[in-house]
Amino acid sequence: MPAPRSLPVSPDRLVLGFDLVATFVFGLEGASAAVNANLDVFGALVLGFVTALGGGIIRDLLIGDTPPAAFRDQHYMITALVGALVATAIFAPISHVPRWVLTVLDAGGLSLFAVSGATKALEFGANDLTAMICGIITAVGGGAIRDVLLNVVPQVLRTSVYASAALFGTVVMLIGIRAGQPRGRMMCIGGVACLALRLVAAWQHWNLPHAESL
Amino acid sequence: MPAPRSLPVSPDRLVLGFDLVATFVFGLEGASAAVNANLDVFGALVLGFVTALGGGIIRDLLIGDTPPAAFRDQHYMITALVGALVATAIFAPISHVPRWVLTVLDAGGLSLFAVSGATKALEFGANDLTAMICGIITAVGGGAIRDVLLNVVPQVLRTSVYASAALFGTVVMLIGIRAGQPRGRMMCIGGVACLALRLVAAWQHWNLPHAESL
Amino acid sequence: MPAPRSLPVSPDRLVLGFDLVATFVFGLEGASAAVNANLDVFGALVLGFVTALGGGIIRDLLIGDTPPAAFRDQHYMITALVGALVATAIFAPISHVPRWVLTVLDAGGLSLFAVSGATKALEFGANDLTAMICGIITAVGGGAIRDVLLNVVPQVLRTSVYASAALFGTVVMLIGIRAGQPRGRMMCIGGVACLALRLVAAWQHWNLPHAESL
Predict the structure, then answer these.
(1) Which residues does chain A have within 8 Å of residue C164's beta carbon, measured at their own beta carbons?
(2) Do C96 and B126 touch (CB under 8 A)?
(3) Interface residue A133 vs chain B (CB under 8 A)
(4) Which end of chain B is more exposed for a tag (fewer CB within 10 A), N or C?
């Protein structure tokens, strides 16, 4: 039996790639949220910036990769700024960004960051539990900072099947990896699993039980 | 005169023990607050988790113990999750957790984290002022993150004799240590001092003067 | 032609000096905001403390200078506490601190931290983009934490020509440095540029365009 065929890129480069696409998407989405909240142009850039980079920075501080990648590798900051600039340039004229656009962008960033965060934690020697937590933190951290700054309860607490979708994606990925699948392939499968669950849940208005109704 | 009898455990292990009990208590208390705030089950777990681990993580980042203990030693995460799960399982059916239960749990976590935070800072070479500040940060940090996420002004700013009780406990501990008492014994005495002051203040509705009434 | 005359102090010591003056000013200003928000005396000290030290601590964690200067060098904590104590002692009797006093104090701290933050990042090997971001983070970080704790949208998002004034000051400084001017002199010029822009903007109620009106 041949060894399972891996993707033609190393997990390291996949983490960077996933991180950068998620950074762009969250930069776009954070600045769009600022447009909806009626902030000025510079405030939109600031909000896009922290939404895009916040999750990864917290992850890097927690796994001990300091200074965080976002402060060592200029691609992160430039990607975040381009995302935020695109949002202010494209979405500003239409004045209000449709809710479903933000939901889809957010789900994309969530999925990419969940698997890249968990994979990076594994590479720094984390066990599976810590890797799952790191995946969730990377995925929801930037959005949590965005919502705290906008003075609303963060989406991670308000929205059902949000952090749990990130958890689902990382669990799918980790099960595959422990079963011997190549890490790069499982990053893609885990990301798709998270994205699918999050979008279907948003579309069907799935709710987890509230604690008091258990 | 014999040397003062120490507790039969090293300060190192006492810090871990105090940290873990406080982590459990704050996990329980953070998830209970989520039940009261009508979050869903996964949101309650997330809130219990950050309440339990937030203060210690900030302390460890600030004293340079990276990655933070909560990310190196799996006991922390598991303890926080068990605390949060117990809260959702026990408190969910009664739907609203009585206020005094939360106050007592909170005071317990506050006291344990105040002395463990200050002691860990001492072990990392901090002077007394920095140790006091680290004790306060460890004690109030998790709750501050909890309240910020729930979008309310943190208890540390709203509640009189809260951060000041943590300060009192660390001062009692440090005075004893500087007077030659064993560190482990003073951790217990300082913790009891903080707990007693906090509970009496909550019971008697003690208030510090407001700044403008000085 | 003689070499440009530098200030008689090294950039290192200028960073410390600027940091400490800004720490004092933000300690004063954070505690004053607490007086206005009707917090008690200890809450005012806590708020002054985090406003004064928050920006520099985040900067130091991000550039990898851990433990942060505020936890290694006792001057920071003492300066922050003195600033907060002065505010509660002076401003408490007059019960409400005039808005323009807070604006001027805030602009001073903003300017000093913007140039000290960018300069310290340069000394840790950051490129110009990262140095600019670090300058902004140092300048607005403490105030953002203050406002998040007071449960309002941070000034950096609400107020036009705030983060952008910090950016302006660091850009002026970096252009001068790249043109061969001594670092110490450009710190002063950049700081004055930021302060002037911020104060004129506050006085004239300048506004950046809101995103939707572009």
Answers:
(1) 42
(2) no
(3) yes
(4) N
